[in-house]
Design a protein that fits this description.
By secondary structure, the chain is of the alpha+beta class. It contains ten helices and 25 strands. Helix content is 21%, strand content 29%.
Length: 469
């Protein structure tokens, strides 16, 4: 191009191409590709850490010693505006009424409960007052306060939604409360006077017989866990007559059936035949499908209402935070519920972050430990593993689990069955289902699994953990 002294004539034109463009060159090049990526895959620590037990026949039966004490439950309520009522059938969650099925009597009993409201720091019952009422906590959090050795006040327990107290005092000879209950938050309770309960006993022979059977169970010899006692003698001298004994078992032990997660994977034959370089399309489709199936498996192990750990923890193994967010004191309390060789904590990543904030605020800095080459936080030497399958409620609360694992340790175990037909991974099969008239190949992908808690104290849960602060 020539240049002139006149600036209007110095206009550049299109430059000639001197070499092959990159856009054209890519037509001849083989690109380097990654395998298909997905954000759904997580570490799935629960699947890795649970010891898996071979379950022949698809059913695992948990045999236990006979327990005389009736298992505790949580009571559910219904409300119309500000008026709260207990659902009559839910009264059978009280140990006193467990197994009682006369709906007419339960309805009459539910109608006798009176609603009361308490503000924060209000006293609901006070130590030394007459113990003549049953209390159901419909909403709120309550501290159960007792007296220490030197008459100082100590918090014995924290009660919350669905808990109750006083259910035994109406059938036992307890004259006064042995503790004080004080509301931590605004609290709604339903109260049943002992007099109203005794009137219903007089009117219903079925209820009267049921209560008498409950009194008999309370008098049975039992150990500190409520199991039928094994009579022993120790420390004796000479020819002492030894007690006779036997170990009684539950007559109706619980059985866990293997659950299933399935899907049908479909692949076009043209895709499977022609587009397999550099990656096999069928293998990649199958890999991502199995990853999603394993994610669902871990979700079910935690959330399934039949066998999921969040729903199968004993009510005596469920505790509440003292102040709301998870603190070192709360995790210590959780360790006290699973104190026999605890294996690991399991919590949502946001819950772990909330615990870290509370620990930092208190000037406590939890250490991390090495687990298989991974650095994970720990408390008292027990690792804390993340799982996003633990739900977070709309009110920004979640739960922290603590497990003891293993068949020999009477802990929590996973259940599966290996050696199934067309097994692709342990207890996971990929079965060819044929080719349709539309030239689509179908594979049935199936995973079998479940989980069992061998004894109640193998699993503890810290509930209603606030993570939004």
């Amino acid at each position: 191009m020539t240049y002139s002294n006149d600036p209007n004539l110095n206009v550049e034109g299109p430059q000639p191409q001197l070499s092959l463009s990159t856009a054209a060159a890519r037509n001849l090049a083989t690109t380097t590709k990654s395998a298909p990526q997905t954000q759904e895959i997580t570490s799935r620590w629960l699947l890795k850490l649970l010891p898996w037990v071979q379950t022949k026949g698809g059913v695992f039966r948990v045999n236990r010693r006979l327990t005389y004490t009736v298992g505790d439950g949580r009571v559910t309520f219904t409300n119309t505006g500000a008026a709260v009522q207990v659902i009559p059938q839910e009264l059978t969650e009280l140990p006193l009424l467990r197994g009682f099925d006369d709906i007419g009597v339960l309805t009459a009993l539910a109608s006798q409960f009176v609603q009361q409201e308490f503000a924060p720091d209000d006293t609901i019952v006070e130590i030394g007052q007459p113990a003549d009422r049953v209390f159901l906590i419909a909403h709120g959090k309550v501290n159960k306060i007792g007296l220490g050795k030197y008459d100082e006040q100590i918090v014995l327990d924290v009660l919350a939604d669905g808990d109750y107290f006083g259910d035994r005092v109406v059938v036992e000879s307890q004259d006064t409360w042995e503790f004080t209950l004080k509301a931590v938050t605004r609290t709604t309770v339903l109260v049943l006077p002992q007099q109203a309960f005794e009137q219903l006993i007089d009117q219903s022979e079925a209820l009267r017989n049921h209560v008498e059977e409950f009194r008999v169970r309370l008098r049975q010899p039992q150990n500190w866990q409520g199991e039928a006692s094994i009579e022993l003698a120790s420390g004796h001298l000479g020819e002492t007559e030894l007690p006779g004994t036997f170990v009684d078992y539950e007559l109706k032990p619980r059985e866990y059936e293997l659950s299933v997660a399935q899907t049908v994977l479909r692949i076009q034959t043209r895709v499977a035949d022609l587009y397999n370089e550099p990656m096999n399309q069928t293998e990649q489709q199958l890999r991502l499908t199995i990853e999603a199936l394993r994610e669902r498996q871990e979700y079910e192990l935690l959330n399934n209402r039949d066998f999921g750990l969040l729903h199968n923890a004993d009510l005596k193994q469920r505790i509440h935070t003292r102040s709301g967010p998870p603190t070192p004191d709360d995790l210590d309390e959780l360790l006290a519920t699973v104190w026999k060789e605890p294996a690991f904590f399991l919590a949502h990543p946001r819950t772990i972050a909330a615990f870290g904030r509370e620990a930092n605020r208190l000037g406590v800095y939890p250490q991390s430990i090495d687990v298989g080459g991974n650095r994970v936080p720990a408390w008292r030497g027990v690792p804390i593993f993340p799982s996003n399958k633990i739900p977070i409620t709309n009110t920004r609360t979640s739960s922290i689990l603590l497990l003891r694992t293993g068949l020999e340790k009477q802990g929590v175990i996973g259940l599966h069955q290996t050696g199934i037909p067309d097994e692709y991974q342990p207890s996971l099969s990929v079965r060819f289902m044929g080719i349709s008239e539309k030239a689509i190949i179908s594979y049935l992908v199936t995973a079998y699994y479940s989980a069992a808690v061998l004894v109640p104290d193998a699993l503890g849960i810290l509930e209603d953990v606030e993570i939004g602060r």
